[in-house]
Write a structure and sequence with these properties.
By secondary structure, this protein is an alpha+beta fold. It is about 45% helix and about 25% strand. The chain folds into 2 domains: about 15-25 and about 90-170, Roll (PH-domain like), CATH 2.30.29; about 30-85. The protein has 6 helices and 8 strands, in the order αβαααββββαββαβ. A 4-stranded antiparallel β-sheet has the order 1-2-3-4. A hairpin with a 5-residue loop joins β3 and β4. α2 packs antiparallel against α4 (about 55-90). About 20% of the residues are buried.
Length: about 180
């Protein structure tokens, strides 16, 4: 028997999944950068260093560079592991009745909001976010609550699906957002 996802397990009677979002691959970039930088430092040979540095400091500097490189690779692997666990444990969904976000692997944090309680949604994107199509979406609930969802892939598609279903659940109501 295959295990159900969190979203599937909390669907209400007559509720169906309309849009499933996911995190963007950008969450892997810090770990990859650290691993690549560390590998570069580890692979520098004494011959390469001799071209740029005086011979006297090369030996000691080589050891520091090697230790720093190993530390960067280990740190990068830990960051990549964290990003992967975050990717596989995060579920983002818009149903015909709610918006649902779940994160966490062992300890879990969830956000569920009925669509008739959503006042709007805003998107925050950097220049790189616009180029690579990722960003943060802020879901505004009634009563002033705001829930951020960071590093979401295709944030405008998620917002469009959310606002489409908010409008269907609030006929004649107004929703805000950028």
């Amino acid at each position: 028997m295959a295990s159900q996802s969190y979203v599937e397990s909390v669907l209400l009677k007559d509720e169906r999944l309309e849009y499933a979002g996911q995190l963007h691959w950008i969450i892997f970039v810090p770990g990859l950068t650290s691993c690549i930088s560390g590998a570069f430092l580890c692979l520098l040979t004494p011959d390469m260093l001799n071209r740029w540095l005086p011979l006297g400091i090369m030996g000691e500097l080589r050891n520091y560079m090697l230790y720093t490189g190993v530390a960067l690779v280990v740190g990068g692997v830990l960051m990549l592991s964290h990003a992967y666990l975050r990717l596989i444990s995060t579920e983002l969904a818009v149903t015909n009745r709610r918006v649902i976000a779940k994160g966490g692997f062992i300890s879990r944090i969830t956000f569920e909001l009925m669509l008739n309680r959503v006042e709007g949604a805003n998107i925050d994107q950097t220049v790189w976010g616009r180029v690579l199509d990722f960003g943060s979406i802020f879901v505004h609930g009634t009563g002033g609550g705001v829930t951020p969802i960071d590093h979401i892939a295709r944030p405008f598609a998620f917002k469009h699906a959310l606002m489409t279903w908010v409008e269907k659940n609030q006929p004649g109501g107004s929703v805000k957002g950028n």
